[in-house]
Amino acid sequence: MKKKLAFLGIVALVALMAFPATALAQPPTSTSFSATAVVGLTGTKATVPTPAGVITTRENLSGSVVATDWSDLAGATLSTDHNSRSALLGFTGVVGSSGSITGQLRGNFTFTSPAGDRISGRFDASIGGSWMLIDFTGTGQPIVLATVTNSGSWQAGSGSGIYSGVKASGSYSGSFAGILGAPGLFGGTATFSGTHR
User: Fold this and answer.
1) Contact, 91 vs 133, CB < 8 A?
2) CA angle, 45 as apex, 44 and 50 as ends, to 5°?
3) What is the pTM of this model?
4) DSSP string, 41-63
């Protein structure tokens, strides 16, 4: 009986050694990537001035990926739907005045491939930048010109088609300029960097 058990043990060991290592279950490897899109403000649901600043709901940015080293994002579009709370520090309403911007944003993003496959998730970021109140038309209706930066993080939560089952997360940054809160007149670049697997 002992000899039989020993023989079976040797057979099992030989079989294990002969089994290709690549056939064993391996966790998916993570791949680093970066994707930059040129985007513009396409709309907002509401912008509410408050004593502490401005609350914007359902702010939408839309555009296209112009540079990426993740082939599945090549040619994709990017859209966001987010809320923000920002303060124009030093704002007095006097034409020609200027100051800095600070705040936070949080919301959803979606990348859509040329074939219609989607990968979506959530992102949040701090808001920084500067503003200037000008009345370049002389109508007494000044506008806020601004340069805005975002810095934060993101995580994909769902995907379809080529993105089905993909796990991805990383850092987010944005750089924008134009007339603050004006669809079609405010835009810049949004960069999503991180890993996917």
Assistant:
1) yes
2) 90
3) 0.83
4) EEE-SEEEEETTEEEEEEEEEEE
Q: Quick one: tokens of 84? A: 């923000």
Q: C-alpha angle 36/42/47, rounded to 5°? A: 115
- CA–CA gap between residue 102 and residue 89 (Å, rounded): 8
Structure tokens that stand for 170 in this block: 């990383």
Residue 190 is classified by DSSP as E
Q: How far is CA 142 from CA 51, 100, 184, in A?
A: 19, 17, 18
- Digit-by-digit pLDDT tens for the chain (197 residues) are 544 444 444 434 444 454 454 445 566 689 999 999 999 999 998 777 666 678 899 999 999 999 999 999 999 999 999 999 999 998 888 999 999 999 999 999 999 999 999 999 999 999 999 999 999 888 888 999 999 999 999 999 899 999 999 999 999 999 999 998 899 999 999 999 999 99
Q: Which two tokens stand for residue 165?
A: 């089952």
